[in-house]
Design a protein that fits this description.
By secondary structure, this protein is α/β, with parallel strands linked by helices. It is globular. The mean pLDDT is 95.
Length: 644
């Protein structure tokens, strides 16, 4: 039996475990990336591990999330990250140089390599034939220190593409189509490989959009073959030496195969408040719009923005619509400026934002109260935009540009002939925005600079034989990390100050939760299906741990969040019978007993002391995860056990 692309990379990087679906495996990691919203805690963890230098082939620290500096906090974090990167051997991508995934794709990604990043959209690197995985910051710190990264061996899905995209239809529509097929839960536990004859019609930027959006399926990663399209892109970036061919074997076996005819895909929209709430754009033309945002790590490539410029050329944005454009990198911005496309964008009435995540993470450009915002982003979770009652739709750059011109959601096919764009044979290359680290001789003299907002990392406590605590919060299905630990310009600056950040924990769901959790001292949370979907932000585990949450009981968990809970010493339990979820009430007193035996058997007993009812719980853990929980978290475990 042959191997898939992902299986080939896993096989060549396997350091522990067996390639049996569902079994825990440890992987050697070639590259890491961090961004500033998660990076500070990752580097605090790296410092605590007492290693003098990162041991990866390449690690890059990007500043792209917390770039709106309304106070000293973000600037202090950036200064800290720059100093620790210089000392520990990490390259530092300066503010304004671009979004981590776009810049990494342009300048650093390599076919056949492993990459983990403290950002859930790290699988964007799969467009180059990398095995690229989102992870918690603690896991990234361990990888930088030379340790393995552990996941459960994923299943393999294959999407066979046939045909060719029609005019006005783009890769974003393909992403929305697969979300319509699979839903935000349908890719859980799987790597999605894209292939078939149709894949040859997609450029690397188009592949990157699709790989990026695979995160919204709950997938472990997405991956494309490394072929002549890949080689052409790397050559244009002056990196042809990084190319290797990589394809699945003809007799590779997949757990599921999905066929998509590209010629049958039409312009689509994800309606509020989930990326899988997908409808054709033509059915939504009665939806008036007040804001349009083009950019994010999903759709900010040169190809995307050249297409937007061509659509806007000679036209004006509709009255009542505010249009923003965020280039994904300084390279993209300089090339737009050099060819005149930036002038076309600005002449339409668009507002140019910096090369950063910006509105996608709620960092500025929030919609008006009750406003409708159409965005080329990857998530439209309630409140993520910074305006709780905003209605956010996710679309392609083509639909976004047409919508900005019309003032309502518009099927771009109504604009007439679709303009064609061509990418240059060579991109403008200027890596001065990425600062190299000090060499090993200089590193000892580098001072790490800490501002007053940077607080020590809280540590978990080892598990005891039982957890007796109140059920302080009960939430429903598809709770996202934005629900647990909101983002936005008001909250993100406190990512390195956990005591302050704790004031905002779960306030999207219940504004009284932080106070009640502190008062309880120890507590248990109950959730529905797919608990913790969305961002890789470890703060959604770290802050509840700080507030005394000792266990989360849910119908099911998103992969990265379950790992983050374990990394911070919180027990992630699932109902043996999902219907038992309905029998528990917020405020009741609960006891999880027999924990030490349960860690070994995978079964736990729950007693509702308020009602006297008992329930069966499950938690399947590897031996390593059991040891992490016993130690009180990954940092304590790593100090005890060393790198593995």
């Amino acid at each position: 039996m042959g191997y898939t692309i992902a299986q080939k990379i896993i096989r060549s990087h396997l350091v522990s475990g067996e390639m049996i679906p569902g079994a825990e495996i440890g992987l050697r990691i070639d590259q890491t990336l961090t961004q500033d919203a998660t990076g500070t805690m990752a580097y605090l963890a790296l410092e605590a591990m007492d290693v003098p230098r990162v041991r990866t082939e390449l690690s890059v620290a990007y500043i792209d999330h917390n770039t709106l500096q309304c106070g000293f906090e973000n600037a202090d974090d950036h200064r800290y990250i720059q100093s620790v990167a210089r000392k520990y051997g990490v390259r530092f991508s300066r503010p304004g140089n671009g979004i981590c995934h776009q810049v990494h794709l342009e300048r650093f990604g390599k076919p056949g390599k492993t990459l983990i990043g403290s950002d859930s959209h790290t699988p964007t690197g799969g467009a180059l034939g990398m095995l690229a995985l989102g992870a918690g910051g603690m896991d990234v710190a361990v990888a930088m220190a030379g340790g393995a990264y552990y996941i459960n061996m994923p299943r393999m899905f294959k999407v066979n593409l046939t045909g060719r995209l029609q005019p006005w239809v783009s890769a974003k529509d393909v992403s929305l189509e697969i979300l319509r097929i699979l839903s935000v839960r349908g890719g859980r536990g799987a790597v999605i490989e894209w292939g078939g004859e149709g894949v040859k019609t997609l450029s690397v930027p188009e592949r990157a959009t699709i790989a990026n959006m695979g995160t919204e399926l709950g997938a472990t990663s997405s991956i494309f073959p490394s072929d002549e399209i890949t080689e052409s892109f790397l050559r244009a970036q002056g990196r042809e030496a990084d190319y290797i061919p990589l394809a699945s074997d003809p007799d590779a076996v997949y757990d599921r195969v999905i066929d998509i005819d590209l010629s049958a895909v039409e312009p689509l929209c994800a309606c509020p408040h989930s990326p899988d709430n997908v409808r054709p754009a033509r059915e939504l033309e009665d939806v008036a719009v007040s804001q349009v945002c083009i950019g994010s790590c999903t759709n900010s490539s040169l190809r995307d923005l050249l297409r937007v410029a061509a659509i806007l050329r000679g036209r004006k944005v509709a009255d009542g619509v505010s249009l923003s454009v965020s280039p994904g990198s300084r390279q993209v911005l300089e090339m737009l400026s050099g060819c005149g496309a930036l002038t076309d964008i600005l002449a339409s009435g668009a507002r140019l934002l910096e090369c950063a995540c910006g509105p996608c993470i709620g960092m500025g450009f929030s919609p008006a109260s009750g406003g409708v915002s159409v965005r080329t982003f990857n998530r439209n979770f309630e409140g993520r935009s910074g305006t709780r009652d905003a209605q956010v739709y996710l679309v392609s750059p083509e639909v976004a540009a047409a919508t900005a011109l019309c003032g309502h959601i518009a099927d771009p096919r109504g604009l007439g002939e679709c303009p064609e764009v061509e990418l240059p044979e060579r991109f403008r290359i200027d890596d001065s925005g990425v600062l190299p680290p000090a060499d090993e001789a200089e590193a000892a003299g580098v001072e790490i600079v800490r501002g007053p907002n940077i607080r020590p990392m809280p540590l978990g406590e080892p598990l005891g034989e039982e957890i007796a605590a109140p059920l302080t919060l009960k939430v429903g299905d598809n709770i996202t990390t934005d629900h647990i630990m909101p983002a936005g310009a008001k909250i993100l600056p406190y990512r390195s100050n956990v005591p302050k950040l704790a004031e905002f924990c779960f306030t999207v769901c219940d504004e009284t939760f932080p106070e009640r959790a502190r008062k309880a001292g120890r507590s248990i949370i109950v959730g529905g299906a797919n608990y913790g979907q969305g961002s890789s932000r470890e703060h959604a585990a770290l802050v509840p741990m700080y507030l005394g949450v000792r266990a989360v009981i849910a119908k099911s968990f998103a992969r990265i969040h379950a790992a983050n809970l374990i990394n911070y010493g919180i027990l992630p339990l699932t109902f043996a019978d999902p219907d038992d979820y309905d029998r528990l009430s917020q405020g009741n007193e609960l006891t999880v007993s027999g924990i030490f035996a349960g860690l070994e058997s995978g079964t736990f007993a729950l007693t509702d002391r308020t009602t006297g009812e008992t329930f069966a719980l499950k938690c399947e853990l590897s031996a390593r995860q059991r040891d992490i929980l016993r130690a009180g978290g990954l940092l304590a475990y790593t100090k005890e056990a060393g790198m593995r």
